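Late entry, zinc ion complex.
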Amino acid sequence: MTYQGVLTKMETEFLEPIHYYLVFENDFINMNQLLNKSITLQFVKYQCLNCNLNKPIYRQGFCKSCFFDIPQAADWIMRPELSTAHLDKEDRDLEYEKKVQLQPHIVYLANSSNVKVGVTRKSQVPTRWIDQGAHEAIEIVEVPNRYLAGVTEVALKDHVSDKTNWRTMLKNDIVDENLVAWRDKLKAFIPEEAKDYFIENNTETNLNFPVVKYPTKPKSLNLLKSKTFTGVLSGIKGQYLIFEDDTVFNIRSNEGLVVDLTVN
Ligand SMILES: [Zn+2]
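Prediction complete; structure with ligand written out below:
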């Protein structure tokens, strides 16, 4: 059975364990059902997620000209503190920016390889944590816009990491942290303008990933170089497919690639 489609990050369902779905134009593939099965991935061509053209992907699934043009790829996406819609100030497209930035945002702590701080729209909880491969997470503040979340994250970065080590995350070399204690410790460093939004009484969310066997030495698959790869799927964590031979494939960083997925 071969499915063909352009890669976009897998849809997820917060169940025990988490369920993953690859969504192609004509197919909806339940990836959990492919565990312990041999699958083949083959590169076919590029398809920019904005213009749909067969042009090399530059970043975030977009070709270079789209990446530097469209509002979905502006700097404030990766650096929320640069958001300006709350000031009625346009970056690339004020209408789009208002829609995305002026809605409840969460600053959270997530533990995937270490405790890190992050920002997401409230509607993306717990999806964002699943995508990062966090086994536990907690909200710290809920603010009315992206800017406030961004300045809070920047202030907290001096006291907690904002990065994940993907190898550690995939090897599942994890430590169970007390995130409630972390949240209380970081409270003092929340900037003045966001202090009122601190969440006092919540508990950790724990996440369970569908993994049969974790890799001991994860090696990243470069499908553009190898063109094709066959392996037995042994797990899914974050947005990574994990194979029995320790090969891992990050769906998220391969968005915009059209592939054939064959179940052998
Ligand atoms: Zn494009």
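The two ends are 7 Å apart (CA to CA). Will revisit in the morning.
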